[in-house]
Structure formats: C-alpha cells, structure tokens
Specification:
By secondary structure, this protein is mainly β. It is about 0% helix and about 60% strand.
C-alpha cells in the first residue's frame, strides 16, 4: 500500500503565494515521476507540473514562470511553489506519484487533493 498526502492549500488573494507539499509513504521501492494536477470547478483535471527523479521539469503553459515544482527524493516528497496566483488558479490540487512498489509492481498513486482558492 502506498499513501500520498497533500498539504498546504488554502485561501489567498490574487497576487499572493502558496506552497503545496506532498509526501508519499508505504510500500515504495522507488518513485520515478511526481506531478501536480488540478481540477477547477466544473472542469476536467489537468496537468500542472511534473518532475522526474533526476529533476527534469515540465509545466503547463498557464503556470510557466509563476509555479515551481521541486522534490526531495530522500523524503519521497514533492513541492509546488505557487507565486503570482490568479483567480483562475482556483482548483483542487492533486499529487501523483509513479514508480515501483516493494513488490516491484507498478505504482501510480494519487492523493486526496487539497483546495486552493484565489480571491480577486
């Protein structure tokens, strides 16, 4: 069993900042890719940012230059620093961890989500 837990969401005014954290634990052999996704109200879930084990990153065009994804491999943790937040960033943010479990089966685990609300 692998658990993924997000934290750090909340309410912030436009132009403000938030830092999300996500920790994976349990029967983990290795985590390859970690990512943040979000689901705005009434819309489909979308990829926000992704980071590989060696630190290669990719961002959605809508957050480039404002959001930064980083990770700590020793702690199986990924972070999302969100600056210059806009009302359109309002969404439930989900963490995803992919890799191998201790049984060497494919691991594709999601957290329960954390709400980010940006007021105008």
């Amino acid at each position: 069993q692998v658990q993924v837990v997000e934290s750090g969401g909340g309410l912030v005014q436009a132009g403000g900042s938030l830092r999300l954290s996500c920790a994976a634990s349990g029967s983990i052999f290795v985590i390859g890719t970690m990512a943040w996704h979000r689901q705005p109200p009434g819309k489909q879930r979308e990829l926000v940012a992704i980071i590989t084990r060696d630190g290669t990153t990719k961002y959605a065009d809508s957050v480039k230059g404002r959001f930064t994804i980083s990770r700590d491999n020793a702690k199986n943790t990924v972070y999302l620093q969100m600056n210059s937040l806009k009302p359109e960033d309002t969404a439930v943010y989900y963490c995803n961890a992919q890799g191998l479990s201790t049984l060497h089966t494919i691991m594709d685990s999601w957290g329960q989500g954390t709400q980010v609300t940006v007021s105008a």
